[in-house]
What we know:
By secondary structure, this protein is mainly alpha-helical.
Amino acid sequence: xxxxxxxxxxxxxxxxxxxxxxxxxxxxxxxxxxxxxxxxxxxxxxxxxxxxxxxxxxxxxxxxxxxxxxxxxxxxxxxxxxxxxxxxxxxxxxxxxxxxxxxxxxxxxxxxxxxxxxxxxxxxxxxxxxxxxxxxxxxxxxxxxxxxxxxxxxxxxxxxxxxxxxxxxxxxxxxxxxxxxxxxxxxxxxxxxxxxxxxxxxxxxxxxxxxxxxxxxxxxxxxxxxxxxxxxxxxxxxxxxx
Length: 242
């Protein structure tokens, strides 16, 4: 199946895999390239903050939503949410089309106040081979986003890679379930094969236990009031908060 300009096939996978195309109908949004390089601003409450400092805006939104006790908790959850969306779009496209759209940060517009599937808009659809997925997501997004978060919030590199590995495996599992329900073994096989290659990369290779597929670092969700352990958490019980 050839990659179409509306990425229509992704709709069957559910909203988290969908990527809107074209320009956002409700006005311009910052690109992810701008988000990764935006300078820190304290413009809380300023309606322009989502444009001037998209990452900071998103972190504050997540912090308020989950009543995060520490900034790093909100940063981790915001990071995992965005990375999970990027993996879902890329791996879903590769599994269904055997191609991926070019997700260059300057082509992706992001609404840090939005939710899937309406927070990301790809302004131009350019087809790339499926095996370009590592370069598209890892080099195009994981690296610059992690660098920005480490510099600004002093986040652990191991935690961020762990988030990326967990998000990738989450996309694989969702595609496996969809493929099983619809009798599409070729989709399952493509997703598994691409994921195996991606997990061979040094940054991702040590993020999950190869037997249990549980992550080897914690996303800090247990620190959210009323939170708990994620399904792939490295802990068997929430650590003490002392």
